[in-house]
Every structure is written in C-alpha cells, then in structure tokens.
C-alpha cells in the first residue's frame, strides 16, 4: 500500500479565454478546464506516481460528474466525493491579462463545495492519510468550514501530517480582516505551510516579504516542521527549526501560470510522503524542492492546471537539461 495523501476542499470548473492576454469582458470564447487547488494537487501527486484521494463536494450535475470522472481517469481515489442535489458545481472565469495578472470571477452562491457537511465525511479515508492537505477556501463558509475542521481533527488524531497551502482568493471572503482571521485560525495546527510572497505581505502587513525575520517572527510557529515560500520563476525559500535557504527555479518559457503552485505542492508532498523526516536533512530537502520547482516550471509551459501536471519522467528530463 503506497502512502496516501488526502486532499480536502474545492473542485470546480475554470473557464479560461481561448485567447490569452484579454480581459474577461473582451474574451469571446472560453474553454472549460477542471480546477480547484486541492483537486489539482491530488492529480499532481498521482501523475508523479504517488497515491492520492480527494474529498469535497460538487453538484449533482453534468459538471460534477465530469470532475469525478477526471479524478478517476487520473487514478485519484474519488470515493470521498459527494454530490449535492440542490446546489451547482462551482464555476470560475479566469483570464490572464496581457500584463500577466489574473482576473477572477466566481459563480458560487452557494456552490456545492461550500455545502459539504461533517456527516458526509469519509472518516475511514481520512484516517488512512499519511498527509492531509487543505487550503483556506474551504474555511470561508458554513457548513463546509465545520466539515473542514472536523476532517483536520480526525487526520491529526490518526497521526497524519497536516499540509496547508493558503491559496488566498480575496474576492471570496467577506472582508480582508475575515480572510486574515480565517486563514490564521488553523495556522498553529499545520505541520507544513506553503505561502506565496503576496500572501506573506497580506498576512503580516509588512511590505517586504523577503525579510526572513518577518517570516520567523510572525508566521513560523512552534509546531511547524516546514515553511515554504513560493516565488514563481525565482524558485522557493524554505524554513525549518534548524535551517533556512533558497532553491532557484527551473528556467522555462511560460505560457500559462495556472496550477504552478499546485504542481509545486504536489512535487514536495510526493517526496515527503515517502520520506517523512525530509525536513531534518537539508541536502535531501533541497533536492526535493528542486524537484518541486521543476514540477511548477513544467506546468507553466502548457495551458490549464490538471492537463499540464507532469509525470516523474518529465520532471527528471527537465532537471537533466537545467
């Protein structure tokens, strides 16, 4: 039995303009792509040869069943998925404008993912998780928030490593303060946390996200085993109780940055799940992060998140060239 990573949260349909560099208002044709960070990570781990499961809720509609099938095709255990008869699968319209910035427009009022209830959790599946991975979007609304907290408690009690990718989507929160409070509410329970530079600025209110002291004083907590800062094409920074450093990115020609962070997370988790004391050995950790950086780099060379998730062979190939 391979070590299992259980990813909890939202899965939705992203609609992306077929022409890049236009705003949502200017786009005339949209292509649909499966999305949702926790689901992307589950697929990423599976593509890399690992074992993963996804827990979350979609609508009892064509899009919901399509998403369940996509997970199955990618060898992700989808037995923890639930289908809501009253609410639809969430939709997001995302455009990459010519300046490289992303524009988001969400359709979820409420969408099925927000309505997962504690009673619908696949408890046995959660108990099998060697790593339990989640984001912050599932903390925004009830009843999903309570289900999220309950799932975390079950995982923690079963000895899982809790992995948290903040994945801030401000438009979905009632306010900036609510977002900060919600994101930080589970902070001290996570063993592994991944943030972006923008998220450091948002959470600490400090202008310089590169300041190690800011990270160590304001964000690093006593239970934390590994804190990761993704820096896009520049690579990533890492902090543990014993050491800290930076691993440079892998050079590629970017086409679409969607899913790069999720690919990075799936890269590091796929190594961590089979080498649970990774954060105690700096050399091994740096190798794993180089691998994770390569996963992120490969995703930006293709469109979409799930279709672009790389295999282990592709990652080793690009690392040979770099």
UniProtKB/TrEMBL annotation:
Pathway stated in the Swiss-Prot or TrEMBL entry: Glycan biosynthesis; starch biosynthesis
GO cellular component term of the entry, any: cytosol
Catalysis: reaction(s): D-fructose + ATP = D-fructose 6-phosphate + ADP + H(+)
Gene3D superfamilies xref list: 3.40.1190.20
One Pfam family from the record: PfkB
This protein's UniProt keywords: ATP-binding, Carbohydrate metabolism, Kinase, Nucleotide-binding, Transferase
Start and end residues of each Carbohydrate kinase PfkB domain: 3-311
EC number(s) on file: 2.7.1.4
Domain of life according to the entry: Eukaryota
SUPFAM superfamilies xrefs: Ribokinase-like
Alphabetized GO MF terms: ATP binding; fructokinase activity
Gene Ontology biological process terms in this record: fructose metabolic process
Family: Belongs to the carbohydrate kinase PfkB family.
Main function: May play an important role in maintaining the flux of carbon towards starch formation.
Protein name, UniProt field: fructokinase
Native organism: Artemisia annua
């Amino acid at each position: 039995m391979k070590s299992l990573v259980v990813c909890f949260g939202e899965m939705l349909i992203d609609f992306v303009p077929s022409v890049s560099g236009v705003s949502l208002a200017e786009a005339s044709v949209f292509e649909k792509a499966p999305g949702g960070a926790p689901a992307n990570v589950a697929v990423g781990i599976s593509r890399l040869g690992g074992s993963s499961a996804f827990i979350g809720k979609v609508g009892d509609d064509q899009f919901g069943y399509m998403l369940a099938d996509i997970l199955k095709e990618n060898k992700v255990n989808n037995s923890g998925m639930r289908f809501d008869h009253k609410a639809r699968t969430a939709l997001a319209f995302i455009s990459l404008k010519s300046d490289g910035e992303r524009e988001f427009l969400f359709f979820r009022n409420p969408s099925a993912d927000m309505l997962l209830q504690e009673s619908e959790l696949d408890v046995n599946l959660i108990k099998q998780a060697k790593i339990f991975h989640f984001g912050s979007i599932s903390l925004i609304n009830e009843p999903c928030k309570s289900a999220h907290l309950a799932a975390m408690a079950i995982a923690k009690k079963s000895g899982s490593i809790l992995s948290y990718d903040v994945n801030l989507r401000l438009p979905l929160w009632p306010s900036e303060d609510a977002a900060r409070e919600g994101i930080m509410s589970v902070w001290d329970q996570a063993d592994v946390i991944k943030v972006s530079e923008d998220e450091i600025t948002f959470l600490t209110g400090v202008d310089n996200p590169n300041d190690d002291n800011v990270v160590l004083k304001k964000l690093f907590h006593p239970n934390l085993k590994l804190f990761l800062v993704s820096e896009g094409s520049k690579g990533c920074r890492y902090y543990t109780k014993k050491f800290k450093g930076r691993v440079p990115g892998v050079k590629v020609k970017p086409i679409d940055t969607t899913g790069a962070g999720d690919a990075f997370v799936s890269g590091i988790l796929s190594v961590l799940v089979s080498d649970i004391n990774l954060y105690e050995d700096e050399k091994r950790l740096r190798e794993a992060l180089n691998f994770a950086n390569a996963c992120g780099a490969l995703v930006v060379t293709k469109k979409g998140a799930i279709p672009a998730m790389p295999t282990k062979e592709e990652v080793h190939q690009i690392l040979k060239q770099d």
